[in-house]
Design goal:
6-stranded mixed beta sheet; Aldehyde Ferredoxin Oxidoreductase,  A, domain 1; globular; alpha+beta
Length: 649
């Protein structure tokens, strides 16, 4: 097969059975690959009401048809499972070399099920697949375990065809928001993928591949890829992306009030956000830039703390602003060094740093309001580095009150009282990244509609100030039809709900192919480029709209899976109360307004936007359920039958 490795690998940890099956042409034609085929496998293999941490849940990992090729910025590996933090079926993505290694070993997808009877790891070396004892690394931090496996199998460096996906102690203890990490660097699985691995006694997956990937029309493929590479080389802001990563937009976020403190009650003053946590202090600690395979931007970094009590600490940072945004700016009298220390400790234990910071913020507010005290928690919840480190370690080891925190937000509400729920800022049980009071683009609106709750589709509205003409051109570039663009700007207004539908389809199309969504890369892609590269790589001719439709098909399939799970639209699109309160920023009160700041968005108006979103998706506007007509149009008649049998349509 061209573009594809051609096989799905199935591993039963309970019995030790390992088998490979041919990747079917039918799956390819309907779902392209990556996130698409993952979602279809999950729909078929993980029934509703499955316990996320039970033996019947499955982990499905896949790499799309462009992964492992010379197409620029195509490293993405996708994972889907029933997530224990949200109880939803949702797609997660990660960078690094794991996707390429999986393809080079001969597999497009990996399905893991059952539960090993002892701590284990999975070794995949081309056609040789073995379940091995992890007794020597169980209990080790993520960095220690990864280095141990590198010593055993040879460390080929970042961005090669050998890769390690690993969990830390938080995953072993089934902390509901535990992550996995690829090569000690790139995170994968917000929502608790690490906990699912821990529930299966699976510490790590080591993949080594030597087979490579063949393309159907090498001349055509390289012609397109080289043209893109030349454009990337000439890009006037490429150097800034490599230097600052996604901190390129930091000043714009700071000026918009997007850097939150005090449990989303306030935004950091822009001058403080820039001078203390912005590009200049970032560069002062940056040791080297790091790129995923096939990427020319290098937006990741290795950071080194040079002075003070943490001098000599070297931190691999997959997200250029992770230390800042997740913890640094939330620690009283903090700085970037403290943020990096907090980020590194969370990573070593394999815990989601966003949720660890969210816990600290939430408990700090409850302490201020008198809901909790030191006797109840075993510590004083202050916004300090020491408190963050204690929360991280206690949660990861399930020590003291950390055992309650490890089980997620619902357990916290049971323990602390239902009245504390309103102080938790969550979407589907996950701490958000964006806030509609600062910028209402697809990123903030998409947190409402995303089944994982974490971050909507990042697009050009991630920073303020885009013109209507720029947004309209962007919609055209990602495949939105002309009438949809007209609806997005009807009546001289910008309808973020209509816009978000097409950015979501675009994101899932990229996730099917394996293309990174970071703006430093994806701005060189159009829906036409995706179709041309796919056709040249696979020898299967597709149109631009076929590619966009594939993204839409996956989105609808995941929606149906979660409705069959028992969720209602009201639950899936629930919005935290806090976003309807003012966000204090530089002496002003920020409230939700449309992207251009022209129109106030009330609670009722937001509900109307959600109904607009349902209509644009072809779903029932009252129930949020995909209509039979829409599912039939997408070739998902079997899904329509399942929903009808459950009385959902």
């Amino acid at each position: 097969m061209y573009g594809y490795a051609g096989k799905i690998l199935y591993v039963d940890l309970s019995t030790g059975e390992i088998k490979a099956e041919k990747l079917s042409r039918k799956l390819i034609e309907r779902f392209l690959g990556g996130a698409g085929i993952n979602a279809k496998l999950a729909y078929d293999l993980i029934p509703p009401r499955t316990d996320p941490l039970g033996v019947d849940n499955k982990i499905i990992i896949g790499a799309g048809p462009l992964v492992g090729t010379f197409a620029p910025g195509t490293p993405k590996v996708m994972a889907i499972t029933k997530l224990p933090q949200t109880n939803t079926f949702a797609t997660c993505s990660g960078g690094g070399a794991f996707g390429r290694a999986l393809k080079y070993a001969g597999y497009d997808h990996l399905v893991i099920y059952g539960r090993a009877d002892r701590p284990s790891y999975l070794e995949i070396t081309d056609d040789s697949v073995e379940i091995k004892s992890a007794e020597d690394i169980w209990g080790k931090t993520l960095d220690e375990a990864t280095k141990y496996l590198w010593r055993r199998y040879g460390k080929y460096g970042y961005g090669t065809c050998c890769s390690v996906l690993c969990i830390g102690p938080a995953g072993e203890k089934m902390v509901k928001y535990a992550l996995t990490f690829i090569d000690e660097f790139w995170h994968l699985g917000r929502g608790g993928l690490g906990a699912v691995m821990g529930s299966k006694n699976l510490k790590a997956i080591v993949v080594r591949g030597t087979k490579g990937v063949r393309v159907a029309d090498p001349d055509k493929f390289m012609e397109i890829a080289k043209s893109m590479l030349e454009r990337i080389k000439r890009d006037p802001i490429r150097e800034d992306f490599t230097k600052y990563g996604i901190l390129v937009g930091w000043e714009e976020w700071a000026k918009a009030g997007q850097i939150f403190v005090k449990n989303f009650r306030e935004a950091l003053p822009s001058k403080v956000a820039v001078e203390v946590f912005g590009p200049k202090p970032y560069i002062s600690l940056k040791k080297a830039a790091v790129a995923c395979p096939s990427c020319q931007e290098g937006c990741k970094a290795i950071m080194e703390i040079k002075e003070g009590p943490y001098a000599g600490l070297v931190v691999p940072v997959a997200d250029a602003m992770a230390g800042n945004l997740t913890t640094g700016c939330k620690i009283e009298d903090g700085d970037l060094v403290k943020g990096l220390v907090a980020y590194w400790e969370a990573k070593r234990y394999g815990i989601d740093m966003f949720d660890a910071a969210g816990l600290m913020e939430y408990l700090s507010e409850l302490y201020e309001r008198g809901f909790v005290d030191e006797e109840k928690l075993g510590f004083v919840p202050e916004r300090t580095l020491e408190c963050f480190l204690k929360i991280t370690r206690d949660v990861s080891e399930r020590r003291g009150f950390g055992d309650v925190m490890a089980d997620g937000w619902e357990r916290l509400f049971e323990e602390l009282g239902s009245e504390t729920r309103k102080y938790a800022v969550l979407y589907k049980g996950a701490t958000p990244v964006f806030d509609p009071r600062a910028i209402l683009g697809s990123e903030a609106f998409g947190e409402i509609t995303n089944p994982r709750g974490h971050e909507g589709p990042v697009s050009i509205t991630v920073i303020p100030g885009r013109s209507p003409q720029t947004i309209a051109r962007y919609m055209k570039r990602i495949g939105a039809p002309d009438d949809a663009i007209e609806r997005a700007f009807a009546n001289n207004r910008f309808n973020v709900a209509v816009y978000t539908k097409y950015t979501e389809d675009w994101l899932y199309a990229l996730d099917c192919l394996g293309v990174c969504r970071r703006e430093g890369v994806v701005r060189f892609y159009t829906i036409e480029t995706c179709a041309e590269l796919y056709s040249a790589a696979t020898g299967i001719d597709v149109s631009p709209q076929d590619v966009r439709r594939a993204g839409e098909r996956v989105w609808n399939l995941e929606r149906a899976h979660n409705l069959l799970e028992g969720f209602t639209a009201e639950q899936l699109e629930a919005v935290p109360d806090r976003v309807f309160e003012p966000l204090l920023f530089e002496g002003k009160e920020l409230r939700i307004r449309d992207y251009f700041g022209k129109e106030a968005i009330s609670r009722e108006k937001l509900k109307q936007l959600i109904r607009d979103y349902y209509r644009e998706r072809g779903w029932n506007p009252d129930t949020g359920v995909p209509t039979r007509e829409k599912l039939t149009e997408l070739g998902l008649e079997d899904v329509a039958r399942d929903l009808a049998e459950r009385g959902l349509m």
